[in-house]
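Hey,

Quick one before I head out. I ran the complex with adenosine monophosphate overnight. Inputs first:
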Amino acid sequence: MLGQMQDWPLLVSKFIEHAAINHPKREIVSMLPEGGQFRYTYAEHEVRAKKCAQALQKLGVKFGDRVATLAWNSHRHMEIWFGASGMGAVTHTVNPRLFPEQLVYIMNHAEDKVLMLDITFVPLIEAIAGHLTSIEHYVIMVGKDKMPETSLKGALSYEELVEAEDGNYSWPEFDENTACGLCYTSGTTGNPKGVLYSHRSNFLHTLLALAGDTLGITSTSVILPVVPMFHANAWGIPFAAAGSGAKLVLNGPHHDPDTLHNLIVEEGITVTAAVPTVWLGMLKYLQATGKDMAKLTTVTIGGSAAPRSMIEAFQRDYGVRVNHAWGMTETSPLGSLGSENAAIQSLSEEEKLDIQCKQGRSVLGVEMSIQDDKGNALPRDGKTSGRLMVRGPWVVESYFRGEAGNLLEEGNWFDTGDVACIDEYGYMQITDRAKDVIKSGGEWISSIDLENAAVAHPKVAEAAVIGIFHPKWDERPLLVVVMEEGQCVTHEEMNAFLADKVAKWWLPDDLAVVTELPHTATGKISKKTLRETFKDYSFPEA
Ligand code: AMP
């Protein structure tokens, strides 16, 4: 027997419609790539998103066509999200930090029809336009008066296109399983793979993002999603902001602590989210200037492991609650989050901090299992590590165009490529990426644990650990560090510092100092590049 409730398709246009009707005067504030700041309301935003949909129709965009964006977080970028996806096309957020060859590959693979780009990225696209095979229209996201001289064929001004429309448009209704957004991940081997989100998956993910235990967003929140809209949907925050009526502040191309701090103070930010590097920069800025975090109450940190020293400093010195989160492009991205559950409430502050360093407990809608190589579930004892497997309605089923074949294992589990354990309270801890684990004498050394321990050294700015061939042990850890300005640490000093923090047999066999560590397009340390750099290295004693 079937239930007898309404079939109301879960479409992302419902978010912006909800915001415009129920929170019409709530603001969206946006820093502009061409300079200056812009602010308007959700009511005005929805009209512009509708005008954007009308403009896309005039450009020939049809249901299911891909509309690419190469843009920073801005009100225009969000208009395109709602305009393109709302009309039934697919918003393809392209990461401008990728190499030009990767940009060409993914835009051709996606068969993008229109490319909407910030003025900042015009030279980048001019250099590769000759290789883009499917783009019919280039739209530069500025007013006509700011249009640059460009070799991009028939380049159009976004403002001119949008303002030519009347906004007399109703969001169409269609199947909630329709594709909504596309985002490529380079986390796997080989070519980047496209993750094709549906309206339904984004809608359910947003409901979860708005749950009390998750990002801390309510209608009275003021949110600054520093995480870019091209990185796994800015962790779903633009949808969640509209869905709740929270004030949304978008930082455009600015990621420096000074601009971010100004926004936090001037706009009264209460909730924000970003990768650890952004918050490490902010901490240094706060410590150097003696400033505080004004009204900020919650920061969600994810994308890479958040060091204990950083979590502690934000909470102790600035009264900001840190929620450590884990996720990936393939999980939309929210998978787990470290808010406190009843089981740990009575623990000491130190014990709670230990748990906060873990990647959090699975959210409703994402099931987690730690499995061995044969697919057997391992105990949730906080010690036994294995492959982190996930499944749920916003977890990928297959990559765009079937790349990499069947992704799911027995029981529909998706192998995240992370190695993790889960403790008795349900908190998951990433111990490594499967390919970054250091296999020493048949035992595993967690590169992440070693890095976190090393970066707590006051003279160290950034640290990475890679496995290097060793004739006796197969692999041993090499610690690669960037020093704080004018500082220096020897291998012996570092190992003495680490001695009470990790097992003795984990201590790095050597320490290399570099001026800079390589980072990927999503801001993570690129172990692949680092391994390449040190491919001819051998340990002195080996
Ligand atoms: P991406 O698809 O680029 O977002 O990358 C996803 C990967 O980032 C995950 O599979 C993890 O390896 C890593 N990751 C995400 N969040 C965390 C975290 N809080 N701690 C450690 N690694 C993380």
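The mean pLDDT is 95.

Talk tomorrow,
K.
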